Amino acid sequence: PAAGDWPEPGHAYFANSYRVADVEAVQVAGWEVAIADHAGPFVAAMRKDRVLACQFHPELSGAWGESLVGAWLGTAATKPDKATGRKEARC
């Protein structure tokens, strides 16, 4: 997704109890965040440049998760890699 362009809110499949609760610290470090709430807010996903990190399993989150990954792959393929200058997505 483009900067600030997250998909509409949806349901994600979480399979663990680990979380980053300090949302502000992640934002101060320059990451865009998606926030979930379960016994308090936490970082559900974060992205910066060509990196998308999810606390949940997008591949198990149905059509919503697939759309998130698809949008990220589309964006990653159009942004040049800072080290090489190449425009390609790598997984």
Keywords:
three-stranded antiparallel beta sheet; alpha+beta; globular; 2 helices; 91 residues
Report the helical percentage: 10-25%
Question: Sheet with the most strands?
Answer: 3 strands, antiparallel
Our measurement of the CA-to-CA distance between the termini, rounded to an integer number of angstroms, reads 16 Å
**Average residue-wise pLDDT:** 79
Bulk shape: globular
Give Rg in angstroms: 14 Å
* Poorly predicted parts: none
- What is the β-strand count? 3
Q: Total number of helical segments?
A: 2
The fraction of residues in strands falls at 15-25%
Task: Give the topology string: H per helix, E per strand.
Answer: HEEEH
Which structural category do the helix and sheet elements fall into?
alpha+beta
What do these coordinates show?
The radius of gyration is 14 Å and the shape is globular. The chain has helices spanning about 25-30, 60-75; strands at about 30-35, 40-50, 50-55. The protein contains two helices and three strands. It is of the alpha+beta class. The longest helix is centred in the C-terminal third of the chain and has 15 residues, at about 60-75. It has a domain at about 25-75. The mean pLDDT is about 80.
Q: Could you provide a short overview of the structure?
A:
By secondary structure, the chain is of the alpha+beta class.
